[in-house]
């Protein structure tokens, strides 16, 4: 049995929604709030006490017979993984990430926002796998996710010509990310498969 965390970096929020996490619920903390605070420097570093409030263990309900009776009861069972859900404002966070380079003297976009978050999670938990669901387009969030995916990148793809055409530019970006990480002394395995 492996312990898994799914981080939803797609602003459509499908990963959380598909396991019943309603991001419209005011009590649900979505990753855009956390990343946005870090990008805008409202927080200087990720603090585990804050980060853990953005991680949910989704459940589904089932029926089980009450032992020794003919009655059935509803029980809630975990799916078997945790989720950091996202919301539509994540696209605004991506815009702020790309604009943050304007405040940087070098003019470069900081590509380690998600990497820094993953490091905080790794230091404080024992997840066997952390999976990052990214937007379908190659943008600042996707580059951040690739930088954070030091154990390897897997590219899901449809079997059509348009998808195959996009893979070559994605591969170039992934190769660049791998080289950049290694230049900073971060071991990065690059693309594991398509």
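Q: What amino acid sequence fits the structure above?
A:
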């Amino acid at each position: 049995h492996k312990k898994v965390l799914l981080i939803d970096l797609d602003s459509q929020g499908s990963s959380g929604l598909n396991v019943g996490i309603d991001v419209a619920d005011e009590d649900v903390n979505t990753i855009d709030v956390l990343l946005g605070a870090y990008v805008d420097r409202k927080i200087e570093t990720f603090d585990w006490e804050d980060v853990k409030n953005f991680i949910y263990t989704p459940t589904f309900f089932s029926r089980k017979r009450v032992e020794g009776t003919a009655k059935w009861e509803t029980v809630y069972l975990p799916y078997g993984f945790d989720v950091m859900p996202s919301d539509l404002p994540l696209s605004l966070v991506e815009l702020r990430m790309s604009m943050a380079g304007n405040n940087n003297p070098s003019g470069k976009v900081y590509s380690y926002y998600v990497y820094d978050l993953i490091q905080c999670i790794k230091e404080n938990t024992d997840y066997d796998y952390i999976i990052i669901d990214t937007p379908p387009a190659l943008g600042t969030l996707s580059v951040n996710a690739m930088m954070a995916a030091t154990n390897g990148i897997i590219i899901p793809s449809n079997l059509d010509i348009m998808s195959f055409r996009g893979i070559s530019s994605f591969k170039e970006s992934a190769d660049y990310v791998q080289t950049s990480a290694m230049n900073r002394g971060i071991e990065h395995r690059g693309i594991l498969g398509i």
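Q: And what stands out in the fold?
A: The two ends are 25 Å apart (CA to CA).
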